[in-house]
Amino acid sequence: MIRSELINRLAAHFPQFTTKDTELAVKAILEALSNTLVKGDRIEIRGFGSFGLNYRPPRIGRNPKTGEAVPVPAKAVPHFQAGKELRTKVDSGS
Q: What integer pLDDT is reported at residue 19 of this predicted model?
């Protein structure tokens, strides 16, 4: 599902809101989630899952074309862990 599909589904499910209102709400939610991760905080949505950051230490990588050693800097990457209810729902297929 892409963002526009999510907006259209929500707008159809809540006819009292215009598509524009729904688009602004989705944008605000995603922006809040992003800003929280940028600050280094964890996000937990009960029944769905949690978002956090995993730290990747610096390492020496290789350029696949030349085989030359290349330093890869440390970085934090977003990580999602599904909650129990979501895992159960996906596993049962319904």
A: 93
